[in-house]
Amino acid sequence: MLITLACVGGKPRPKDAFEDLISEYLKRCVGVVRCDAEAFRTEKALLEWVSHKQGRTPPVLMLLDERGRQMTSAALAEWLRARLDEGKQHVVFAVGPADGWSDRAREEARRRGSLLALGPMTFAHQLARLIMAEQIYRACTILTGHPYHIGH
Amino acid sequence: MLITLACVGGKPRPKDAFEDLISEYLKRCVGVVRCDAEAFRTEKALLEWVSHKQGRTPPVLMLLDERGRQMTSAALAEWLRARLDEGKQHVVFAVGPADGWSDRAREEARRRGSLLALGPMTFAHQLARLIMAEQIYRACTILTGHPYHIGH
Q1: Which of B76, B122, B130 faces A138 most closely, judged by CB atoms?
Q2: pTM above 0.80, yes or no
Q3: Does residue A98 surpass a pLDDT of 90?
Q4: Residue B12: exposure state from Cβ atoms within 10 A (0-12, 13-18, ≥19)
Q5: Residue A151: what pLDDT?
Q6: How much is the pLDDT for B98?
Q7: Could you tell me which chain A residue has the CA closest to the CA of B22?
Q8: Would you call B62 an interface residue with chain A, using a CB distance cutoff of 8 Å?
Q9: Taking Cα atoms as reference points, which of A33, A131, A27 lies closest to residue A88?
Q10: Complete domains list, chain A, with CATH
Q11: Could you point out which of A82, B32, B143, B147 has its C-alpha 20 to 30 Å from the C-alpha of A150?
Q12: How far is A122 from chain B (nearest CA, A)?
């Protein structure tokens, strides 16, 4: 399975401390899932990219959204395990623009996946990406029984 | 007011990408509150430090804890404003050890402040510190009407 950490908007940033940490977490998932990162200028560009993705199974789209459902790290790992069991080849977690997702994007996510809330707080764009990268890695460690989740 | 971002346990780390980002957020609070960071080897050391702090008002202790109450970023800013209005001089936000707080620490927090949950997910120690640093900065921008909170 490929997991894409996607984002829409946000300032273009070359290499900064956030990018280093995000890359590191995504790299550490190897052996469980492959991960990459994609940035889109607009929500429309993201949705078109998702709808044109060819593969044996269509991508599962998870939009990070305050209206989404909150999950514990263990519940996210179980959710991921269920997608693996279904034979899904591609899951896309997407961090939205500063003004949030449109109704159309939310509808698309409900059709292709779900809406996920990181909690009640609002996070900076790069921080939301980093949190999601760590949660993807944490889910991988939960699925493989690595002790990271219970305190390294 | 002084805000201390405290932590208990975690591996000793020199300067890493997390530390750089945390320092940067704490520095940016200047003009609203002063911030510093403290690390304690044990929960006991933290609680003794808090109880020996002298000042016109005793420190308000907020322990980050999954059993705590979840707050939006705006609610956290309002909470901070209320402490400023009460003339509190020192607020301590503390990230706990990997195995969580003891009942004694939770009791102490309820007496001196409260328990705060960042949401339902489990975060790495350094990531929890970074999230809290960003939320402190975000609260400062909400209190001063800086546009950061509504998308930079």
Answers
A1: B122
A2: yes
A3: no
A4: exposed
A5: 67
A6: 85
A7: A17
A8: no
A9: A33
A10: 2-150 (3.40.1280.10)
A11: A82
A12: 6
Q: What is the ipTM metric for this complex?
A: 0.94
Return the structure tokens found at B140: 């400062």
Q: Which residue of A has its CA nearest to B69?
A: A120
Return the CA Rg of chain B. 14
Interchain contact, B119 vs A120, CB within 8 Å = yes
Which one of A79, A121, A132, A149 would you mutate to disrupt binding with B, by most B Cβ within 10 Å of its Cβ? A121
Q: Strand B2-8 vs strand B34-40: parallel, antiparallel, or unpaired?
A: parallel
A151 lies within 8 A of chain B by CB: yes
**What are A40-87's pLDDT values in tens digits?**
999 999 999 999 987 778 999 999 999 999 999 999 999 999 999 999
Q: Which residues contact B86 (CB under 8 A, 6 or more apart)?
A: B57
Closest-approach residue (CA) in chain B for A130: B127
- Residue B12: the pLDDT is 66
**A71 near B CB under 8 A:** yes
* Cα angle value B128/A71/B99 (rounded, 5°): 45
Q: Yes or no: say if B125 and B133 are a contact pair by the CB < 8 Å rule.
A: no
